[in-house]
Amino acid sequence: MSNLPDDPEGAEERERMLHSMLEGFFGDRTDEVLAQMRAQGIDPAALAGVPGAGAPDPAVMQQVLAQVQRLLSASGDGPVNTDVAHDVARQVAASEGDPSLTGGESKSATDALRLAELWLDAVTDLPPAGGPSHAWSRSEWVEATLPAWNRLVAPVATSVAEALATVLRDQLPEDLSGSGMPALPGLPVGALGALDPAEMMRRLGAAVFGMQTGQAAGTLSREVFGATDVGVPLLAEPATVLLPTNVAAFADGLDVPLEEVRHFLALREAAHARLFAHVPWLPAHLHALVEQYARGITIDLDVLEEQIRGIDPSDAEALRGALTGGVFGLQHTPQQEATLLRLETALALVEGWVTEVAAAAALPHLPHTYPLREMMRRRRAAGGPAEHTFSTLVGLELRPRRSREATALFAHLLAEGGPEARDAVWQHPDLLPDDADLDDPAGYHARRAALAEEQADVDAALAQILGSADADGTDPSDRGGDEGRDEDGSGEPGPAGGR
Fold this sequence. Notes:
About 60% of the residues lie in helices and about 0% in strands. The chain is mainly α.
């Protein structure tokens, strides 16, 4: 809202000049854009310069127009503008402070991660992940994990970009030749002139999703303790990570020594890293389920159109706010429901295994193991602001809803068959417990035992067949027809074996 002194004649002149400058972008819809600015409490005349000035301030006008160019300058051809995502994530990560780590903080974190590996060796046969141990600031966490968030968001971002193109196609002029666009410092003439409306909409959608992705990643950087808290692997290479700033903030509200909290969180991080590193199909399995779910999401075009009606297409923040919720078709298909159930079960199994293994490793060393375990379970089950943001982003909350049941299943397997039975769950994706198994751990164990016995019988039969083949020197794949018969064609078996 303008607080400038009344200057009707100067205001009209400045607004005419602003109109001329914006016309290069918005053509015959410039009047509508100016009207929207007034409706939002923005005085176009005030933007155009100070009272008494004969021309608009180029620096102020550059700020008004540079956002348009920024939004439409996508990084590559992907559905997420990774430059915008990076900038927003870094800003959000530092918004509540991101102090540089001291040498002592880094050493305490990496020492805790190394000690965690020794404690875990005593309770599981899965070896250490093998990568380096890191102590990261929030910004360093953003830099390392943002590529993974961009990949997770990409499938639904594509759908939203197409929906935006459909709904907003008529809100921009068809001809953006740029012939009338003024030359401003730092804003090249015709920078946007080559873009047709469909391409502009694609880039606008990519920019909006970049903002949302950056917001989610930046918020998460203030909540996570390592690189594996959300249950989905976010690093390209094996590694273990702690964020000392977040660990200290978490411990500050507990009646538990900081050192004990640090060791407990290091155990969880190292256990996650072992699982993701040495169960090679698991990271791909989790990412595939997320992507499969995201690709099936539909966009409610009527709701989307209602939410963005009247929004200035150049106002990225207003558009991001309009997309904060309700644009996803929440009437899941049966395939969507099945994928969601498989994903939630897989996340619960990861969380349950880590909870059980980390607690077993911690019990001999940490007096507050049980309270810390329960606190972490509740924290994961409830989710946080970043997880809710990600839910808005792809219509999905990465929460292990049945982590308590999964923990009980792994505890039952440990009691019945030891660490080998507990860890054998990860031998193959087809052996993963399903939602029904979480309700019946004893039944799952019995079914696994029966399957193992059946498999042993098959292996024995195959060994007998292959042993017979080796005995007579014949490759079983060559048997058939007249092959393998005696020269007289009788087909009687030779001295070495029977049929």
